[in-house]
């Protein structure tokens, strides 16, 4: 099942708040705000909320089953991380994808992930069993065109690089700066040929760790992290209404 971009229509009309899960309230406004933020961030990153879509505060509050106070707090945080824009007398809308933000996130991710990979490769004992299993999950997801499962396995595979290298905190930092990058990564998954390429790159990354050939593994990882640079130009043409700026 694919829960990727719902349409290729240009944004502008108010978005209908389907596909969002009602928020289960915790104790205190902050915890509710955190849950709203997480749900809206996920919906923006997986393109249920498309770039440029106008957001109705009333509809969002009703769909999520929350009051406006924690909703506004969550939207403010989304503005702070660049996923939502608020324009006076125009409204609140999902931020367009900025290629410069995508490149900045890619640069940071590549630098940190290669450093974590080298530390993982330096360990005397490297258990890559979970990573192998995740590559196999991707192969299965690619066969059934389950892009959500494919992306989830992709994320888990990269998380393992940081975990094995002893840098889980760095992974958490990377997650905070890559939502713009993730939107482009998800758009690219609609290309069936790209899935096989990504799987092969992941296999090479795992092979390098298992065999101890660190430089070969780093080469695969660097190519993989830069893959978005080769897919981005075509996506900017096919989904031009999702992008803004350089």
TrEMBL record:
Keywords: DNA-binding, Transcription, Transcription regulation. The keyword Lyase does not apply. It comes from the Bacteria. The keyword Repeat does not apply. This is GntR family transcriptional regulator. GO terms for molecular function: DNA binding; DNA-binding transcription factor activity. It comes from Actinophytocola oryzae. Residues 30-97 form the HTH gntR-type domain. InterPro entries: GntR_C, TF_FadR/GntR_C, Tscrpt_reg_HTH_GntR, WH-like_DNA-bd_sf, WH_DNA-bd_sf. Transmembrane segments: none annotated.
